[in-house]
Write a structure and sequence with these properties.
The complex is a heterodimer of chains A (about 260) and B (about 170). Chain A has about 260 residues and is an alpha+beta fold. Helix content of chain A is about 40%, strand content about 20%. The chains are: A alpha+beta (about 260), B alpha+beta (about 170).
Chain lengths: ~260, ~170
């Protein structure tokens, strides 16, 4: 009979003598346990090798177990982690996703910040100084030329002169100019008035890429039919130029 | 290790992205502070803007000093004008100061100035031409103490000495 014991495959430490006793030896810890046991009560090892048994253990079916070597939640965590191949909350795909979104957001912000630092607000500089040296130089020239054109006219060619002046005005200023000139046009012709403006000084108060403020000194000579004398006015004029698309135009003209 | 969410290649991707995020953050901060701090514009405009502001202020101060007259207390006013003067303007004013004082006292002149606009013409690192539109209110014996308003167009030629802009020439523009 003993001969038949040899060659039996290892089935959880089962051998004939044990079967007779209803006991077997745990192959993991070598303790003697019940023959029918599916789990060793000493080392808690699974004796069936089947997935169901593992699952049962993972889901915490251990109310039957007498003593717990470890805290249940910790063991489940560990088991779950093993199933998920060891991924804590911030690792792997989640972190990658967060970083991608963060990088995109930062790229957009960096791009915006770069744009702002390269292209400062062209509307206003609060100190009224220079933000564009090119505009400053161009503004000096344009202010002299345009002021002279707008402040000069001859009763003989009044319509043409007015048109020429309007051509160098910004649209926002045209209506004001037309109104002012329109109201004196009749008198101008009747009294044969001629205005000749000469710019004796031009200077820049502020200059941005699209807006220049200039201080212009203008000497205006007025002749009229009634008077043989010429009248000389030494004027100070504040001139604002704006550049819509390409050329500088007068958007404000204020003598003071 | 190997493939899967905890794999090495994913870890490398995470590290690279993390570093990129840091670099972008630093760049963003840099651009925001650069935009916020320095005067806006290219570097030539920044220098120009600074000089523009400084010379405009100096011209304004010198104009006010020049237009202020008080016959009862001329000395400090004269000193003030000379402090902002250099070159030919300084020499002229020094020569004229005695007569200026005497004439003010004779006519019991008082004058206050008001600068309405300042514009800069030609300007470089050490020279500038500044135009000033200023008014003054003058009272003297012939006005019977009543202030009369005058309108001035001034041209100041300025020279930079150290960090100060001084007036080397002062003219009225006719």
């Amino acid at each position: 009979m003993a001969d038949l014991d040899e060659g039996w495959p290892d089935k959880g430490g089962l051998d004939r003598s044990d079967l007779d006793n209803g006991e077997k030896t745990c192959p993991y810890c070598a303790e003697t346990i019940r023959a029918a046991a599916l789990k060793c009560r000493y080392c808690r090892s699974d004796l069936t090798g089947s997935p169901t048994a593992t699952q049962a253990r993972a889901e915490g079916h251990h109310e039957q177990d007498e003593d717990e070597p470890r805290h249940p939640e910790a063991r489940d965590e560990w088991t779950r982690d093993t199933q998920d191949a060891g991924v804590p909350f911030l690792a792997g795909a989640r972190l990658l996703g967060i970083l991608v979104v963060l990088c995109l957001a930062l790229s957009a912000t960096a791009g915006y910040a770069w744009y702002r630092s390269e292209h400062p607000s062209t509307g206003k500089d609060p100190d009224g100084a220079i933000t564009s040296s090119q505009a400053r130089d161009a503004g000096l020239q344009a202010a002299a030329k345009l002021t002279q054109k707008v402040l000069s006219y001859d009763w003989k060619t009044i319509d043409a002169d007015m048109s020429a002046a309007e051509a160098v005005l910004a649209p926002s200023f045209r209506s004001e100019y037309s109104k002012t000139l329109g109201s004196v046009k009749a008198q101008t012709v009747e009294n044969q008035v001629k205005l000749t403006a000469s710019v004796v000084a031009t200077s820049i108060i502020s200059a941005t890429e699209t807006k220049v403020e200039a201080l212009v000194f203008v000497n205006q000579v007025t002749t009229a039919k009634a008077s043989k004398d010429q009248r000389l006015d030494q004027n100070r004029v504040l001139v604002t130029l704006t550049r819509g698309g390409g050329e500088w135009r007068v958007s404000k003209m204020k003598p003071f | 290790m190997g493939t899967g969410p905890a794999g090495t290649s994913w870890r490398i991707a995470n590290v690279v992205l993390g570093l990129l995020a840091l670099v972008l953050l630093a760049t963003t901060v840099l651009f925001f502070t650069k935009a916020a701090s320095a005067t806006p514009g290219d570097s030539r405009s920044e220098t120009l803007s600074r000089a523009h502001k400084q010379v405009s202020k100096a011209a304004k101060d010198q104009t006010l000093a020049f237009l202020t007259v008080d016959y009862s207390e001329m000395d400090p006013l004269i000193v003030k004008v000379l402090a902002g003067a250099t070159g030919s303007f300084k020499k002229q004013y020094e020569r004229a100061q005695v007569n200026l004082k005497a004439s003010a006292q004779d006519s019991q002149a008082k004058s206050t100035g008001k600068v309405l606009a300042v514009g800069v013409g030609d300007i470089d690192d050490i020279d500038a031409v500044v135009f000033v539109a200023a008014d003054s209110e003058v009272s003297n014996k012939s006005t019977n103490g009543k202030p009369q308003r005058r309108y001035h167009r001034l041209k100041l030629t300025m020279v930079r000495k150290g960090d100060k802009w001084l007036t080397s020439k002062l003219q009225f523009v006719g």
